[in-house]
Amino acid sequence: MQNDVLLILAFDTATDVASSALLDDDEVLGERWSTPRTLLEDVDALLRQASARPTDVEALVVGTGPGSFTSTRIGLAAARGLALALGIDGAGVSTLAALAAGAEGALPVIDARRGEVFVPGVAAVAPEDVAASGRLCVGDGAVRYREVLETRGAVIPPDDDPRHRPRAALHPRLATAFGPVDAIEPIYARAPDAEQWRP
User: Fold this and answer.
1) DSSP 3-state assignment of 63?
2) What count of other Cβ atoms lies within 10 Å of the Cβ of residue 8?
3) DSSP states of 135-191 as a string?
4) Read out DSSP for 74-89?
5) Contact between residue 169 and residue 23 where contact means Cβ atoms under 8 Å apart
6) What pLDDT was estimated at residue 194?
7) In angstroms, rounded to a whole number, what is the distance separating the alpha carbons of residues 81 and 25?
8) Mean pLDDT, 10 residues at a time, over the chain (199 residues)?
9) Hey, how many other C-beta atoms are within 10 angstroms of the C-beta on 114?
10) What domains lie within the chain, and their CATH numbers?
11) If we measure between CA atoms, which residue out of 3, 34, 2 comes closest to residue 168?
12) Residues 1, 26: contact at Cβ < 8 Å?
């Protein structure tokens, strides 16, 4: 991270529970969880809570998925709009990496819909094919397919455990390079549902 970057806005909307955070260097000034569609309301609330203005934000970090196609696009579109309006750079962070960072040694498992999950390696696989034996599994995919994964030897925290949510407050630690936000690419791991039905 660049030394001159101080106030950072981070958010991740790739899963059903959106996470957003405002940080001053490594100090978390505020953190919120809601839904992807209320992201901008959350950003406003974080800024108000910190008595900051949008123009005080010096960089963005956005979750790039994989996860819900639409939800991931919401986050990237918001990041691009904010970066353009504020004239700031940003960085993208894998949602799988963010989940793993919030639970040391855990295997992140994100619900990919259609009976599949996303796991590291950015693969969409059937829950039965996840190498989960003896592993702590976290994420909404681990919650949804708890029975299947536990049968395969996984250890899964209770459904309401915060380790199942990607924490935007951890995203800046994972960011490796800041640059134009419109160059940040989403990680889809497969074609969107609409593409499956295109003739």
Assistant:
1) strand
2) 27
3) -BEESHHHHHTHHHHHHTT-B---TT-GGGS--GGGHHHH----B-GGGPPP--SS-
4) HHHHHHHHHHHHHT-E
5) yes
6) 47
7) 23
8) 70 96 94 96 98 97 96 97 98 96 95 95 90 96 98 97 96 95 91 50
9) 10
10) 7-96+166-194 (3.30.420.40), 104-162 (3.30.420.40)
11) 34
12) no
Separation of alpha carbons 103 and 111, rounded Å: 17
Amino acid identity at 144? R
42 neighbors 18 (Cβ within 8 angstroms): yes
What pLDDT, on the 0 to 100 scale, is given for residue 199? 53
Name the strands in the sheet holding 110-113, side by side, starting at the edge strand that comes first in the sequence.
110-113, 116-119, 123-125
Tokens linked to 176:
């490796």
Instruction: List C-alpha distances in Å: 197 to 23, 192, 193.
Output: 42, 10, 7
pLDDT of residue 147: 97
**pLDDT confidence of residue 122:** 65
Contact partners, residue 67, CB within 8 Å, separation at least 6: 14, 15, 95, 110, 111, 112, 118
